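Example 9 (inverse folding). The structure is encoded as follows.
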């Protein structure tokens, strides 16, 4: 796999860089420019920037814990996340989107205006962070939203299914070999469950905020098609490598 990160997001013709790896089509560039060019898919599964406003400090007991990332700059929700979801949802029948509580209302209104039924979802943290001095209740969950149109595929037929999913992190050596160099990487078993639930076998999913490519890895492992978009070359390279490795594994077992 050729490494792409040293290049600019545009090729010589001025269009976004495109890499095809088996059933995955990956774009390095701005999702707001790329999404209008893409075909219909079954679902959108994504983890956009949260525009986190609460900052965390230091503790003698727990050291430094910060939730400050360069991609969470002020205004990213209105300038990028909501417009990107609006474009993405015109292509799909269902979606699952992690979000900050302050983004929820805007995402719900966007989805509802496009004919979706939006509902809340929560990832329960199996290993929540310890309380920092001066902090009240540290978060033991992560908010998300899912939505669907009539007739959308849904593959979880368990009579006990609910809108809560307990998922671990890559701390404490749990599946630590899968950890990539990305600060907000999602847990692969969780993303595998989401893909298997709302993307039919042979179907396709879009992630306009691909990051380290975990949604794409889950799609490759399950035999689904994937379209991913990432604006940062460093993370694009990581996603390409991980998705390529997943494709190789799939072909090996096939």
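The amino acid assigned to each position is listed next.
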């Amino acid at each position: 796999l050729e490494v792409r990160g040293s290049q600019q997001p545009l090729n010589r013709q001025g269009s976004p860089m495109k890499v095809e790896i088996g059933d995955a089509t990956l774009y390095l560039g701005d999702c707001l420019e790329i999404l209008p060019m893409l075909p219909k898919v079954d679902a959108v599964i994504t983890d956009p920037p949260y525009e986190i406003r609460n900052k965390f400090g230091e503790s003698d007991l727990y050291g430094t814990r910060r939730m400050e990332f360069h991609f969470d700059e002020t205004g990213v929700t209105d300038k990028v996340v909501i417009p990107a979801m609006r474009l993405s949802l015109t292509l799909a029948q269902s979606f699952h989107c992690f979000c900050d509580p302050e983004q929820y209302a805007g995402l719900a209104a966007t989805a509802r205006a496009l004919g979706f039924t939006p509902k809340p979802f929560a990832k329960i943290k199996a290993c929540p962070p310890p309380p920092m001095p001066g902090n009240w209740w540290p978060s033991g969950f992560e908010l998300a939203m899912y939505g669907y149109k009539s007739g959308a595929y849904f593959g979880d037929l368990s009579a006990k299914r609910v809108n809560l999913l307990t998922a671990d992190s890559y701390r404490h050596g749990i599946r630590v070999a899968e950890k990539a160099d990305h600060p907000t990487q999602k847990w692969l078993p969780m993303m595998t469950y989401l893909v298997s639930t709302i993307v039919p076998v042979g179907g396709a999913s879009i992630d306009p905020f691909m990051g380290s490519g975990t949604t794409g890895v889950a799609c490759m492992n399950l035999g689904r098609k994937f379209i991913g978009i990432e604006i940062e070359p460093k993370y694009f390279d990581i996603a390409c490598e991980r998705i390529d490795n997943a494709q190789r594994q799939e072909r090996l077992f096939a």
